[in-house]
Amino acid sequence: MSFLKVKGLRRRFGSVAALDGVDLAVATGSRTAIVGPSGCGKTTLLRMIAGFDVPDDGSITVEGVRLADADIQVPAHKRGIGLVAQDGSLFPHLTVSDNIGFGLDRNFNGREKLISELIDMVGLERSMLTRKPEQLSGGQQQRVALARALARKPRLMLLDEPFSALDTGLRATTRRAVTEVLVAAGITTILVTHDQAEALAFADQVAVMRAGQFSQVGSPREIYARPVDAATARFLGEAIVLPTDIADGFATCALGRVAVDGGSRTGMAKIMVRPEQIEVLPYSEKGEGITGIASQIDFCGPRYDVTITTDAAVPFIMQLSLPSRNVLAEGERVRLRVAGAAHVLGG
Asked: Belongs to which family (predicted)?
């Protein structure tokens, strides 16, 4: 049985359907990321799971107990759910110690010991307990917010874009630290984010949301390699989508003759190739593939951003990112080959 089940959830704000029949199942102890563009319904769904909003239709069940439907609404403070918001929402006038222990009974004998254990758990020094939030970095504030949420021993943790205000390097470091804490504690977690890479790196299960519905739910590798449609493919990363004719397990397209994963499918279709599947080889190298000319080469440190135009009656232009060790000159001819199979899109 799933730990969390969301069934047919709907929520309207006037004429706008923020959620339009959302279904989601989350396994015990797992990490789920809900990813999608701004305004697609991610935060509305999180608020409804937390108990801050009421569904117009559908239901939310945790461990077999109905928390919300059109008639029932268990109050947020009785759901056993922790929440870490985008800005941490620490109380600026309280110390780190008082922030972490805010939800704990002040007469609880083990209060100070638990607060010390929690700050250890999130990887901060105990000397920080006497500081105010303004004396902490953004990443440290987020760890304090996590410790505060953990203090109530939640059965489900909700993370609402908690890393979005952090710099790139700090964001990755904080995300890994938070993940380690949640995994060690065995807490089922849902992360809402608009950052595709963050969702793929964090989660066991990724749910892609678009216009109040999930377009696809699956493992990170599955939805990245086998998206259901072109919109989902492009949202999850750079994607080359091409019309093609499929026969005998191969597609004939602007990239030449390419193996596909469509099984016995034949006829006209669309395929997706991720840019990292395209091998750029010396023009002199023989074998399958097509040829083209490199241009608009931008050095970006560890990589080059290169525009390549294929040699064809109808040229195809693509932008690729190549390791900077692969030195190319503008106007240089190259050979292109697709590694692995292209994915046949549905529809």
From this structure: Belongs to the ABC transporter superfamily.
Q: Give Cα 66 to chain centroid, integer Å.
A: 27
Q: Any residues with CB less than 8 A from the CB of 311 and at least 6 apart, and which?
A: 290, 291, 292, 293
pLDDT band at 88; cut points 50, 70, 90: low
Q: Given this model, what pLDDT does residue 75 score? A: 95
- First and final CA of the chain: distance in angstroms? 32
162's tokens: 């908690």
pTM for this structure?
0.86
Superfamily of domain 4-233: P-loop containing nucleotide triphosphate hydrolases (3.40.50.300)
Asked if 322 and 347 touch (Cβ cutoff 8 Å), the reply is no
Residue-wise pLDDT tens digits, 186-230: 999 999 998 898 899 999 999 999 999 999 999 999 999 999 999
DSSP H helical ranges for the chain? 42-50, 96-100, 111-121, 138-151, 168-185, 196-202, 220-225, 230-235
Tokens, residue 263: 């099984």
Tokens 């008639």 label which residue?
71
